[in-house]
Design goal:
The structure holds 2 protein chains of 2 kinds.
Chain A (H helix, E strand, L loop, with lengths): L1 H16 L2 H17 L11 H32 L3 H5 L5 H35 L4 H28 L3 H18 L3 H6 L5 H11 L9 H5 L7 H27 L6
Helix pairs in contact in A: 1-5, 2-3, 3-5, 3-6, 3-7, 5-6, 5-11, 6-7, 6-11
Chain B lengths: L1 H41 L4 H6 L2 H17 L17 H11 L11 H17 L9 H6 L13 H5 L2 H10 L4 H14 L3 H14 L4 H13 L4 H18 L5 H4 L3 H16 L2 H11 L6 H17 L5
The chains are: A mainly alpha, B mainly alpha.
Chain lengths: 259, 315
Amino acid sequence: MNVVFCISALVVKELYRRKDFYVVFVLTALITLMMGSISFFNDSSMARYLKELCLFLVWVSLLFISVGAAARQLPAEREQRTIFPLLAKPVSRWQLIFGKFLGCWWSTGLALMSFYVFFVILSGTREHEWPLASYLQAATLHWVLLGIIIAMVMLGSLVFAAPSSNATISVVSIVGLMFLARYLNKIALQQPEPLSSLIYALYFIIPHLEFFDVRDLIIHHRAAIPWWAWSVAVVYGLAYVAMFLGATWLIFRKKRLST
Amino acid sequence: MNSSEDHVAARVRFGLLVGVFACATAASWVQPRLEVLSSSYSGNRSVSEVILGDFRQLMANQFMLKADEYFHSGYYPSIFDQPKNKSGVMSEEIRADERSAFSKPEGKDDHHGHDDHHEGVHEEHEEADFLGKPRDFIEAFGRHFFASTHSHLESEQEIKELLPWLKLAAEMDSTRPDAFVLTSYWLRKELRKVDEAEAFLRQGWRINPNSVEIMLELAKLLEADRKDEERAHNLYEAALTKWMRQHPHPTEADYEDTIVEQLLGRIARIEEKKGNYVRAELLLGKLLPLSPAKSEISEQIAALRAKIKAIPAPK
Protein backbone atom coordinates (compact mmCIF):
# COMPACT_ATOMS: atom_id res chain seq x y z
CA MET A 1 0.00 0.00 0.00
CA ASN A 2 3.03 2.26 0.58
CA VAL A 3 3.76 2.14 -3.14
CA VAL A 4 0.22 3.29 -3.88
CA PHE A 5 0.55 6.21 -1.48
CA CYS A 6 3.94 7.19 -2.98
CA ILE A 7 2.46 7.28 -6.49
CA SER A 8 -0.58 9.21 -5.28
CA ALA A 9 1.65 11.73 -3.45
CA LEU A 10 3.55 12.29 -6.69
CA VAL A 11 0.27 12.94 -8.52
CA VAL A 12 -0.84 15.39 -5.83
CA LYS A 13 2.47 17.26 -6.09
CA GLU A 14 2.20 17.37 -9.86
CA LEU A 15 -1.32 18.75 -9.71
CA TYR A 16 -0.63 21.47 -7.18
CA ARG A 17 2.37 22.62 -9.20
CA ARG A 18 0.08 23.19 -12.15
CA LYS A 19 -1.74 26.53 -12.27
CA ASP A 20 -5.21 25.23 -13.27
CA PHE A 21 -6.70 25.21 -9.80
CA TYR A 22 -5.40 28.64 -8.80
CA VAL A 23 -6.76 30.21 -11.97
CA VAL A 24 -10.25 28.72 -11.66
CA PHE A 25 -10.38 29.45 -7.92
CA VAL A 26 -9.50 33.12 -8.42
CA LEU A 27 -11.97 33.37 -11.32
CA THR A 28 -14.76 31.77 -9.28
CA ALA A 29 -14.08 34.03 -6.31
CA LEU A 30 -13.90 37.14 -8.50
CA ILE A 31 -17.10 36.43 -10.42
CA THR A 32 -18.98 35.54 -7.24
CA LEU A 33 -17.80 38.61 -5.35
CA MET A 34 -18.60 40.86 -8.31
CA MET A 35 -22.11 39.44 -8.54
CA GLY A 36 -22.45 39.76 -4.78
CA SER A 37 -21.74 43.47 -4.95
CA ILE A 38 -24.81 44.09 -7.13
CA SER A 39 -27.79 45.65 -5.38
CA PHE A 40 -31.32 44.85 -6.54
CA PHE A 41 -33.91 47.53 -5.78
CA ASN A 42 -31.63 49.17 -3.21
CA ASP A 43 -31.20 45.89 -1.41
CA SER A 44 -28.10 43.76 -1.45
CA SER A 45 -29.06 41.16 1.15
CA MET A 46 -30.21 38.47 -1.31
CA ALA A 47 -28.10 35.36 -1.02
CA ARG A 48 -29.68 32.46 -2.88
CA TYR A 49 -28.85 33.65 -6.41
CA LEU A 50 -25.28 34.14 -5.24
CA LYS A 51 -25.10 30.69 -3.69
CA GLU A 52 -26.50 29.20 -6.89
CA LEU A 53 -23.96 31.02 -9.04
CA CYS A 54 -21.06 30.15 -6.73
CA LEU A 55 -22.01 26.47 -6.59
CA PHE A 56 -22.44 26.35 -10.36
CA LEU A 57 -18.95 27.77 -10.84
CA VAL A 58 -17.53 25.36 -8.26
CA TRP A 59 -19.15 22.41 -10.01
CA VAL A 60 -17.95 23.42 -13.46
CA SER A 61 -14.43 24.18 -12.20
CA LEU A 62 -14.09 20.87 -10.36
CA LEU A 63 -15.51 18.93 -13.28
CA PHE A 64 -12.86 20.33 -15.61
CA ILE A 65 -10.05 19.99 -13.06
CA SER A 66 -10.87 16.34 -12.35
CA VAL A 67 -11.44 15.35 -15.98
CA GLY A 68 -8.28 17.17 -17.09
CA ALA A 69 -6.18 15.60 -14.35
CA ALA A 70 -7.45 12.06 -14.80
CA ALA A 71 -7.36 12.08 -18.59
CA ARG A 72 -3.63 12.77 -18.84
CA GLN A 73 -2.27 10.48 -16.09
CA LEU A 74 -1.73 7.20 -17.98
CA PRO A 75 -1.20 8.60 -21.51
CA ALA A 76 1.45 11.05 -20.22
CA GLU A 77 3.39 8.24 -18.51
CA ARG A 78 3.29 6.22 -21.73
CA GLU A 79 4.25 9.09 -24.01
CA GLN A 80 7.17 10.16 -21.85
CA ARG A 81 8.12 6.49 -21.38
CA THR A 82 8.38 7.00 -17.62
CA ILE A 83 5.96 4.13 -17.18
CA PHE A 84 8.72 1.57 -17.83
CA PRO A 85 11.06 2.55 -14.97
CA LEU A 86 7.97 2.99 -12.79
CA LEU A 87 6.74 -0.55 -13.44
CA ALA A 88 10.28 -1.88 -13.07
CA LYS A 89 10.52 -0.63 -9.45
CA PRO A 90 8.67 -3.09 -9.09
CA VAL A 91 5.20 -1.56 -9.06
CA SER A 92 2.31 -3.70 -10.18
CA ARG A 93 -0.20 -2.37 -12.69
CA TRP A 94 -3.07 -2.29 -10.20
CA GLN A 95 -0.89 -0.29 -7.78
CA LEU A 96 -0.11 2.19 -10.54
CA ILE A 97 -3.80 2.61 -11.43
CA PHE A 98 -4.94 2.83 -7.83
CA GLY A 99 -2.12 5.24 -6.95
CA LYS A 100 -2.94 7.49 -9.89
CA PHE A 101 -6.63 7.39 -8.98
CA LEU A 102 -5.98 8.20 -5.33
CA GLY A 103 -3.64 11.05 -6.28
CA CYS A 104 -6.24 12.63 -8.55
CA TRP A 105 -9.00 12.07 -6.00
CA TRP A 106 -7.04 13.60 -3.14
CA SER A 107 -5.91 16.59 -5.15
CA THR A 108 -9.46 17.29 -6.36
CA GLY A 109 -10.54 16.78 -2.75
CA LEU A 110 -8.14 19.52 -1.66
CA ALA A 111 -9.46 21.81 -4.39
CA LEU A 112 -13.03 20.94 -3.40
CA MET A 113 -12.27 21.77 0.23
CA SER A 114 -10.90 25.21 -0.74
CA PHE A 115 -13.96 25.92 -2.88
CA TYR A 116 -16.40 24.83 -0.18
CA VAL A 117 -14.62 26.83 2.52
CA PHE A 118 -15.03 29.90 0.29
CA PHE A 119 -18.68 29.00 -0.34
CA VAL A 120 -19.49 28.40 3.33
CA ILE A 121 -17.88 31.70 4.36
CA LEU A 122 -19.70 33.54 1.58
CA SER A 123 -23.14 32.10 2.35
CA GLY A 124 -22.62 32.35 6.10
CA THR A 125 -21.73 36.02 5.95
CA ARG A 126 -24.70 36.78 3.67
CA GLU A 127 -27.35 34.69 5.43
CA HIS A 128 -26.00 34.50 8.99
CA GLU A 129 -26.89 30.84 9.06
CA TRP A 130 -24.49 27.92 9.26
CA PRO A 131 -26.18 24.64 8.30
CA LEU A 132 -22.87 22.82 8.54
CA ALA A 133 -24.36 19.31 8.36
CA SER A 134 -25.94 20.11 5.00
CA TYR A 135 -22.71 21.62 3.72
CA LEU A 136 -20.73 18.61 4.92
CA GLN A 137 -23.14 16.25 3.17
CA ALA A 138 -23.01 18.30 -0.03
CA ALA A 139 -19.21 18.42 -0.05
CA THR A 140 -18.73 14.72 0.69
CA LEU A 141 -21.27 13.66 -1.92
CA HIS A 142 -19.57 15.98 -4.40
CA TRP A 143 -16.21 14.40 -3.56
CA VAL A 144 -17.59 10.89 -4.11
CA LEU A 145 -18.97 12.07 -7.45
CA LEU A 146 -15.51 13.35 -8.39
CA GLY A 147 -14.18 9.89 -7.51
CA ILE A 148 -16.63 8.30 -9.96
CA ILE A 149 -15.69 10.84 -12.63
CA ILE A 150 -11.96 10.28 -12.16
CA ALA A 151 -12.33 6.49 -12.30
CA MET A 152 -14.53 6.80 -15.39
CA VAL A 153 -12.08 9.10 -17.16
CA MET A 154 -9.14 6.82 -16.28
CA LEU A 155 -11.01 3.96 -17.89
CA GLY A 156 -11.62 6.22 -20.88
CA SER A 157 -7.92 7.03 -21.13
CA LEU A 158 -7.27 3.37 -21.97
CA VAL A 159 -10.19 3.08 -24.37
CA PHE A 160 -9.95 6.31 -26.35
CA ALA A 161 -7.02 7.25 -28.55
CA ALA A 162 -6.10 10.67 -27.15
CA PRO A 163 -6.59 12.55 -23.85
CA SER A 164 -8.48 15.30 -25.69
CA SER A 165 -11.07 12.94 -27.17
CA ASN A 166 -11.37 11.14 -23.83
CA ALA A 167 -11.93 14.42 -21.98
CA THR A 168 -14.55 15.62 -24.47
CA ILE A 169 -16.49 12.35 -24.52
CA SER A 170 -16.30 12.09 -20.73
CA VAL A 171 -17.59 15.63 -20.14
CA VAL A 172 -20.48 15.08 -22.57
CA SER A 173 -21.35 11.75 -20.93
CA ILE A 174 -21.16 13.16 -17.40
CA VAL A 175 -23.35 16.16 -18.24
CA GLY A 176 -25.79 13.82 -20.01
CA LEU A 177 -25.91 11.51 -17.00
CA MET A 178 -26.41 14.43 -14.63
CA PHE A 179 -29.37 15.83 -16.52
CA LEU A 180 -31.02 12.78 -18.08
CA ALA A 181 -30.39 9.75 -15.86
CA ARG A 182 -33.13 10.75 -13.40
CA TYR A 183 -35.76 10.86 -16.14
CA LEU A 184 -34.83 7.76 -18.15
CA ASN A 185 -37.59 5.72 -16.49
CA LYS A 186 -40.18 8.30 -17.55
CA ILE A 187 -38.78 8.38 -21.08
CA ALA A 188 -38.79 4.55 -21.17
CA LEU A 189 -42.49 4.38 -20.32
CA GLN A 190 -43.32 6.56 -23.33
CA GLN A 191 -41.46 4.29 -25.77
CA PRO A 192 -42.73 1.17 -27.56
CA GLU A 193 -41.32 -2.27 -26.73
CA PRO A 194 -38.53 -3.45 -26.88
CA LEU A 195 -37.04 0.06 -26.69
CA SER A 196 -38.88 0.70 -23.45
CA SER A 197 -37.29 -2.34 -21.72
CA LEU A 198 -33.88 -1.45 -23.11
CA ILE A 199 -34.03 2.10 -21.79
CA TYR A 200 -35.36 0.88 -18.44
CA ALA A 201 -32.47 -1.61 -18.19
CA LEU A 202 -30.05 1.20 -19.00
CA TYR A 203 -31.69 3.28 -16.26
CA PHE A 204 -30.80 0.60 -13.69
CA ILE A 205 -27.26 0.07 -15.00
CA ILE A 206 -25.91 3.61 -15.37
CA PRO A 207 -24.48 5.49 -12.40
CA HIS A 208 -27.07 7.95 -11.08
CA LEU A 209 -24.85 10.97 -10.64
CA GLU A 210 -27.83 13.12 -9.65
CA PHE A 211 -27.73 11.50 -6.18
CA PHE A 212 -24.56 13.49 -5.55
CA ASP A 213 -25.93 16.85 -6.64
CA VAL A 214 -27.70 18.35 -3.63
CA ARG A 215 -27.17 22.00 -4.58
CA ASP A 216 -30.91 22.74 -4.62
CA LEU A 217 -31.26 21.54 -1.04
CA ILE A 218 -28.62 23.91 0.27
CA ILE A 219 -29.65 26.83 -1.93
CA HIS A 220 -33.28 26.63 -0.79
CA HIS A 221 -32.57 25.84 2.87
CA ARG A 222 -34.09 22.39 2.70
CA ALA A 223 -33.51 19.96 5.55
CA ALA A 224 -30.35 17.86 5.56
CA ILE A 225 -30.53 14.46 3.87
CA PRO A 226 -31.20 11.59 6.30
CA TRP A 227 -27.80 10.16 7.23
CA TRP A 228 -28.79 6.64 6.19
CA ALA A 229 -29.60 7.93 2.68
CA TRP A 230 -26.33 9.84 2.59
CA SER A 231 -24.44 6.66 3.63
CA VAL A 232 -26.19 4.55 0.98
CA ALA A 233 -25.32 7.16 -1.67
CA VAL A 234 -21.67 7.15 -0.59
CA VAL A 235 -21.52 3.33 -0.73
CA TYR A 236 -23.30 3.41 -4.11
CA GLY A 237 -20.74 5.89 -5.42
CA LEU A 238 -17.78 3.91 -4.07
CA ALA A 239 -19.17 0.76 -5.68
CA TYR A 240 -19.14 2.49 -9.08
CA VAL A 241 -15.60 3.75 -8.40
CA ALA A 242 -14.54 0.17 -7.70
CA MET A 243 -16.27 -1.07 -10.85
CA PHE A 244 -14.63 1.53 -13.08
CA LEU A 245 -11.20 0.95 -11.51
CA GLY A 246 -11.65 -2.81 -11.86
CA ALA A 247 -12.50 -2.39 -15.54
CA THR A 248 -9.49 -0.08 -15.97
CA TRP A 249 -7.20 -2.65 -14.39
CA LEU A 250 -8.63 -5.47 -16.54
CA ILE A 251 -7.85 -3.51 -19.70
CA PHE A 252 -4.52 -2.14 -18.46
CA ARG A 253 -3.10 -5.52 -17.39
CA LYS A 254 -3.29 -6.76 -21.01
CA LYS A 255 -2.35 -3.45 -22.60
CA ARG A 256 0.88 -3.12 -24.62
CA LEU A 257 2.71 -0.15 -23.21
CA SER A 258 5.09 0.59 -26.08
CA THR A 259 3.68 3.22 -28.44
CA MET B 1 25.64 76.62 -31.62
CA ASN B 2 22.94 78.56 -29.92
CA SER B 3 21.40 79.72 -33.15
CA SER B 4 21.31 76.19 -34.56
CA GLU B 5 19.67 74.91 -31.33
CA ASP B 6 17.08 77.68 -31.59
CA HIS B 7 16.50 76.66 -35.18
CA VAL B 8 15.88 73.05 -34.19
CA ALA B 9 13.62 74.12 -31.29
CA ALA B 10 11.61 76.32 -33.65
CA ARG B 11 11.21 73.41 -36.05
CA VAL B 12 10.10 71.14 -33.21
CA ARG B 13 7.57 73.73 -32.05
CA PHE B 14 6.30 74.11 -35.60
CA GLY B 15 6.08 70.34 -35.96
CA LEU B 16 4.15 70.03 -32.69
CA LEU B 17 1.78 72.80 -33.78
CA VAL B 18 1.14 71.05 -37.09
CA GLY B 19 0.65 67.80 -35.20
CA VAL B 20 -1.94 69.36 -32.90
CA PHE B 21 -3.83 70.82 -35.86
CA ALA B 22 -3.65 67.52 -37.70
CA CYS B 23 -5.02 65.67 -34.67
CA ALA B 24 -7.84 68.18 -34.20
CA THR B 25 -8.74 67.95 -37.90
CA ALA B 26 -8.65 64.15 -37.82
CA ALA B 27 -10.77 64.06 -34.64
CA SER B 28 -13.40 66.38 -36.11
CA TRP B 29 -13.51 64.18 -39.21
CA VAL B 30 -13.59 60.84 -37.38
CA GLN B 31 -15.97 61.67 -34.51
CA PRO B 32 -19.23 62.20 -36.47
CA ARG B 33 -18.50 59.19 -38.64
CA LEU B 34 -17.90 57.04 -35.58
CA GLU B 35 -21.16 58.24 -34.09
CA VAL B 36 -23.07 57.33 -37.24
CA LEU B 37 -21.33 53.98 -37.35
CA SER B 38 -22.05 53.17 -33.72
CA SER B 39 -25.71 54.24 -33.98
CA SER B 40 -26.21 52.14 -37.09
CA TYR B 41 -24.54 49.25 -35.31
CA SER B 42 -26.28 49.34 -31.95
CA GLY B 43 -28.75 52.24 -31.92
CA ASN B 44 -29.90 52.70 -28.34
CA ARG B 45 -29.18 49.10 -27.52
CA SER B 46 -27.04 47.97 -24.64
CA VAL B 47 -23.90 45.93 -25.08
CA SER B 48 -25.67 42.73 -24.03
CA GLU B 49 -28.41 43.38 -26.62
CA VAL B 50 -25.79 43.73 -29.34
CA ILE B 51 -23.92 40.61 -28.23
CA LEU B 52 -26.79 38.29 -27.28
CA GLY B 53 -29.52 39.36 -29.72
CA ASP B 54 -32.66 37.20 -29.60
CA PHE B 55 -31.00 34.82 -27.19
CA ARG B 56 -31.94 37.36 -24.52
CA GLN B 57 -35.60 36.37 -24.83
CA LEU B 58 -34.76 32.75 -24.12
CA MET B 59 -32.68 33.84 -21.16
CA ALA B 60 -35.50 36.06 -19.89
CA ASN B 61 -37.86 33.10 -20.06
CA GLN B 62 -35.35 30.99 -18.18
CA PHE B 63 -34.96 33.66 -15.48
CA MET B 64 -38.73 33.88 -15.06
CA LEU B 65 -38.84 30.12 -14.59
CA LYS B 66 -35.98 30.40 -12.13
CA ALA B 67 -37.94 32.96 -10.10
CA ASP B 68 -40.92 30.60 -10.13
CA GLU B 69 -38.66 27.77 -9.02
CA TYR B 70 -37.37 29.91 -6.15
CA PHE B 71 -40.94 30.75 -5.17
CA HIS B 72 -41.51 27.02 -4.67
CA SER B 73 -38.15 26.57 -2.91
CA GLY B 74 -36.70 24.45 -5.68
CA TYR B 75 -39.73 22.14 -6.06
CA TYR B 76 -40.31 22.60 -9.75
CA PRO B 77 -41.25 20.38 -12.69
CA SER B 78 -38.69 19.66 -15.38
CA ILE B 79 -39.63 19.30 -19.04
CA PHE B 80 -40.13 15.60 -18.35
CA ASP B 81 -42.63 16.31 -15.59
CA GLN B 82 -45.04 18.21 -17.88
CA PRO B 83 -45.85 21.45 -16.12
CA LYS B 84 -49.49 22.46 -16.08
CA ASN B 85 -49.01 25.79 -17.79
CA LYS B 86 -46.34 27.96 -19.28
CA SER B 87 -47.02 31.11 -17.30
CA GLY B 88 -45.89 29.45 -14.10
CA VAL B 89 -47.67 28.63 -10.90
CA MET B 90 -46.37 31.80 -9.26
CA SER B 91 -48.42 33.87 -11.71
CA GLU B 92 -51.43 31.62 -11.07
CA GLU B 93 -51.15 32.17 -7.35
CA ILE B 94 -50.98 35.93 -7.84
CA ARG B 95 -54.02 35.78 -10.10
CA ALA B 96 -55.92 33.90 -7.40
CA ASP B 97 -54.89 36.61 -4.96
CA GLU B 98 -55.94 39.38 -7.36
CA ARG B 99 -59.28 37.67 -8.03
CA SER B 100 -60.02 37.74 -4.34
CA ALA B 101 -59.44 41.49 -4.37
CA PHE B 102 -62.16 42.33 -6.93
CA SER B 103 -64.81 43.25 -4.47
CA LYS B 104 -62.67 44.84 -1.80
CA PRO B 105 -60.07 47.54 -1.63
CA GLU B 106 -56.51 46.23 -1.43
CA GLY B 107 -55.09 45.67 2.00
CA LYS B 108 -58.48 45.23 3.69
CA ASP B 109 -59.52 41.84 4.92
CA ASP B 110 -62.32 40.11 3.13
CA HIS B 111 -63.38 36.77 4.46
CA HIS B 112 -64.98 35.55 1.28
CA GLY B 113 -62.11 36.60 -0.90
CA HIS B 114 -59.68 35.05 1.53
CA ASP B 115 -61.45 31.71 1.27
CA ASP B 116 -61.50 31.96 -2.52
CA HIS B 117 -57.80 32.58 -2.53
CA HIS B 118 -57.08 29.58 -0.35
CA GLU B 119 -59.37 27.40 -2.40
CA GLY B 120 -57.43 28.43 -5.50
CA VAL B 121 -54.12 27.80 -3.83
CA HIS B 122 -55.30 24.43 -2.55
CA GLU B 123 -56.24 23.37 -6.09
CA GLU B 124 -52.89 24.59 -7.30
CA HIS B 125 -51.13 22.59 -4.57
CA GLU B 126 -52.88 19.45 -5.73
CA GLU B 127 -51.91 20.18 -9.33
CA ALA B 128 -48.38 20.91 -8.24
CA ASP B 129 -47.86 17.34 -7.02
CA PHE B 130 -46.28 16.58 -10.35
CA LEU B 131 -43.94 13.88 -9.06
CA GLY B 132 -46.66 11.38 -8.17
CA LYS B 133 -45.76 8.04 -6.66
CA PRO B 134 -42.21 6.82 -7.33
CA ARG B 135 -42.09 4.31 -10.17
CA ASP B 136 -39.13 2.32 -8.84
CA PHE B 137 -36.69 2.14 -5.93
CA ILE B 138 -34.10 4.38 -7.64
CA GLU B 139 -36.66 7.14 -8.11
CA ALA B 140 -37.88 6.71 -4.52
CA PHE B 141 -34.34 6.87 -3.18
CA GLY B 142 -33.40 9.77 -5.47
CA ARG B 143 -36.10 11.96 -3.91
CA HIS B 144 -33.91 12.41 -0.86
CA PHE B 145 -31.44 14.39 -2.98
CA PHE B 146 -33.55 17.14 -4.50
CA ALA B 147 -36.42 19.35 -3.39
CA SER B 148 -39.28 16.84 -3.61
CA THR B 149 -41.85 18.42 -1.32
CA HIS B 150 -43.97 21.48 -2.01
CA SER B 151 -43.31 24.65 -0.04
CA HIS B 152 -43.47 28.38 -0.67
CA LEU B 153 -41.31 31.32 0.20
CA GLU B 154 -43.00 33.07 3.08
CA SER B 155 -40.89 35.52 5.04
CA GLU B 156 -39.87 38.91 3.71
CA GLN B 157 -36.23 37.84 3.48
CA GLU B 158 -37.23 34.78 1.44
CA ILE B 159 -39.44 36.76 -0.95
CA LYS B 160 -36.48 39.04 -1.67
CA GLU B 161 -34.71 36.10 -3.22
CA LEU B 162 -37.05 36.25 -6.23
CA LEU B 163 -36.07 39.78 -7.14
CA PRO B 164 -32.67 39.19 -8.79
CA TRP B 165 -34.19 36.74 -11.28
CA LEU B 166 -37.19 38.95 -12.02
CA LYS B 167 -34.97 41.98 -12.53
CA LEU B 168 -32.66 40.01 -14.79
CA ALA B 169 -35.65 38.73 -16.77
CA ALA B 170 -36.93 42.28 -17.25
CA GLU B 171 -33.50 43.45 -18.31
CA MET B 172 -33.03 40.60 -20.73
CA ASP B 173 -36.41 41.09 -22.38
CA SER B 174 -37.91 44.44 -21.50
CA THR B 175 -40.87 43.84 -23.83
CA ARG B 176 -42.30 41.30 -21.35
CA PRO B 177 -44.82 43.16 -19.18
CA ASP B 178 -45.19 40.20 -16.81
CA ALA B 179 -41.63 40.63 -15.50
CA PHE B 180 -42.42 44.24 -14.50
CA VAL B 181 -45.84 43.39 -13.08
CA LEU B 182 -44.61 40.44 -11.01
CA THR B 183 -41.66 42.38 -9.67
CA SER B 184 -43.87 45.29 -8.69
CA TYR B 185 -46.37 42.93 -7.04
CA TRP B 186 -43.73 41.44 -4.74
CA LEU B 187 -42.03 44.76 -4.11
CA ARG B 188 -45.13 46.61 -3.00
CA LYS B 189 -47.26 43.87 -1.43
CA GLU B 190 -44.68 41.80 0.40
CA LEU B 191 -41.63 44.02 0.77
CA ARG B 192 -43.43 47.39 1.03
CA LYS B 193 -40.94 49.03 -1.34
CA VAL B 194 -43.49 51.21 -3.07
CA ASP B 195 -41.04 53.76 -4.50
CA GLU B 196 -38.93 51.06 -6.11
CA ALA B 197 -42.04 49.30 -7.42
CA GLU B 198 -43.41 52.49 -8.97
CA ALA B 199 -40.08 53.43 -10.56
CA PHE B 200 -39.73 49.95 -12.02
CA LEU B 201 -43.31 49.94 -13.33
CA ARG B 202 -42.90 53.35 -14.91
CA GLN B 203 -39.70 52.15 -16.56
CA GLY B 204 -41.67 49.17 -17.92
CA TRP B 205 -44.52 51.43 -19.05
CA ARG B 206 -42.11 53.68 -20.96
CA ILE B 207 -40.84 50.65 -22.85
CA ASN B 208 -44.30 49.06 -23.25
CA PRO B 209 -46.73 51.97 -23.55
CA ASN B 210 -49.53 49.68 -24.77
CA SER B 211 -49.33 47.21 -21.93
CA VAL B 212 -52.67 47.07 -20.11
CA GLU B 213 -51.13 44.78 -17.49
CA ILE B 214 -48.57 47.40 -16.48
CA MET B 215 -51.21 50.16 -16.42
CA LEU B 216 -53.43 48.01 -14.21
CA GLU B 217 -50.59 47.27 -11.80
CA LEU B 218 -49.58 50.93 -11.67
CA ALA B 219 -53.18 51.94 -10.96
CA LYS B 220 -53.37 49.37 -8.15
CA LEU B 221 -50.20 50.84 -6.70
CA LEU B 222 -51.62 54.36 -6.86
CA GLU B 223 -54.87 53.25 -5.26
CA ALA B 224 -53.58 50.93 -2.56
CA ASP B 225 -50.18 52.34 -1.68
CA ARG B 226 -50.29 56.02 -2.66
CA LYS B 227 -53.99 56.38 -1.66
CA ASP B 228 -54.48 58.45 -4.81
CA GLU B 229 -57.88 57.18 -5.91
CA GLU B 230 -58.43 59.85 -8.54
CA ARG B 231 -55.31 59.07 -10.53
CA ALA B 232 -55.87 55.36 -10.04
CA HIS B 233 -59.42 55.75 -11.42
CA ASN B 234 -58.16 57.60 -14.48
CA LEU B 235 -55.55 54.94 -15.10
CA TYR B 236 -58.10 52.10 -14.70
CA GLU B 237 -60.34 53.84 -17.22
CA ALA B 238 -57.45 54.38 -19.62
CA ALA B 239 -56.42 50.76 -19.27
CA LEU B 240 -60.00 49.57 -19.91
CA THR B 241 -60.26 51.78 -23.00
CA LYS B 242 -56.94 50.44 -24.25
CA TRP B 243 -58.05 46.86 -23.63
CA MET B 244 -61.30 47.49 -25.56
CA ARG B 245 -59.30 48.92 -28.46
CA GLN B 246 -56.93 45.98 -28.44
CA HIS B 247 -59.84 43.50 -28.33
CA PRO B 248 -62.60 44.96 -30.51
CA HIS B 249 -64.30 41.53 -30.69
CA PRO B 250 -63.24 39.78 -27.48
CA THR B 251 -63.43 36.02 -27.34
CA GLU B 252 -63.71 33.82 -24.24
CA ALA B 253 -59.95 33.31 -24.27
CA ASP B 254 -59.45 37.08 -24.03
CA TYR B 255 -61.40 37.14 -20.78
CA GLU B 256 -59.39 34.31 -19.26
CA ASP B 257 -56.46 36.49 -18.21
CA THR B 258 -58.69 38.26 -15.61
CA ILE B 259 -57.42 41.74 -16.58
CA VAL B 260 -60.78 42.99 -17.75
CA GLU B 261 -62.44 41.38 -14.72
CA GLN B 262 -60.13 43.29 -12.41
CA LEU B 263 -60.59 46.57 -14.28
CA LEU B 264 -64.39 46.35 -14.26
CA GLY B 265 -64.52 45.42 -10.57
CA ARG B 266 -62.16 48.16 -9.49
CA ILE B 267 -63.77 50.92 -11.56
CA ALA B 268 -67.23 49.84 -10.32
CA ARG B 269 -66.08 50.10 -6.73
CA ILE B 270 -64.66 53.60 -7.22
CA GLU B 271 -67.79 54.74 -9.09
CA GLU B 272 -69.94 53.47 -6.24
CA LYS B 273 -67.82 55.40 -3.76
CA LYS B 274 -68.30 58.53 -5.82
CA GLY B 275 -72.05 58.00 -5.85
CA ASN B 276 -72.24 57.09 -9.55
CA TYR B 277 -74.49 54.10 -8.83
CA VAL B 278 -75.85 53.76 -12.35
CA ARG B 279 -72.40 53.40 -13.92
CA ALA B 280 -71.29 51.11 -11.09
CA GLU B 281 -74.31 48.86 -11.71
CA LEU B 282 -73.59 48.86 -15.45
CA LEU B 283 -69.98 47.81 -14.89
CA LEU B 284 -70.91 45.11 -12.37
CA GLY B 285 -73.47 43.84 -14.89
CA LYS B 286 -70.61 43.39 -17.37
CA LEU B 287 -68.45 41.78 -14.71
CA LEU B 288 -71.11 39.27 -13.60
CA PRO B 289 -70.67 36.70 -16.41
CA LEU B 290 -66.86 36.89 -16.14
CA SER B 291 -66.37 36.54 -12.40
CA PRO B 292 -66.36 33.31 -10.37
CA ALA B 293 -67.87 35.22 -7.39
CA LYS B 294 -71.30 35.48 -9.06
CA SER B 295 -73.46 35.44 -5.94
CA GLU B 296 -71.45 38.20 -4.30
CA ILE B 297 -71.64 40.42 -7.38
CA SER B 298 -75.38 39.77 -7.74
CA GLU B 299 -75.83 40.94 -4.16
CA GLN B 300 -73.81 44.07 -4.90
CA ILE B 301 -75.91 44.77 -8.01
CA ALA B 302 -79.10 44.38 -5.94
CA ALA B 303 -77.72 46.75 -3.32
CA LEU B 304 -76.84 49.30 -6.01
CA ARG B 305 -80.31 49.05 -7.52
CA ALA B 306 -81.78 49.74 -4.09
CA LYS B 307 -79.58 52.79 -3.76
CA ILE B 308 -80.60 54.01 -7.24
CA LYS B 309 -84.28 53.61 -6.33
CA ALA B 310 -83.72 55.51 -3.10
CA ILE B 311 -82.46 58.55 -5.01
CA PRO B 312 -85.30 61.10 -5.17
CA ALA B 313 -86.38 61.93 -8.72
CA PRO B 314 -85.40 65.46 -9.86
CA LYS B 315 -88.28 67.95 -9.64
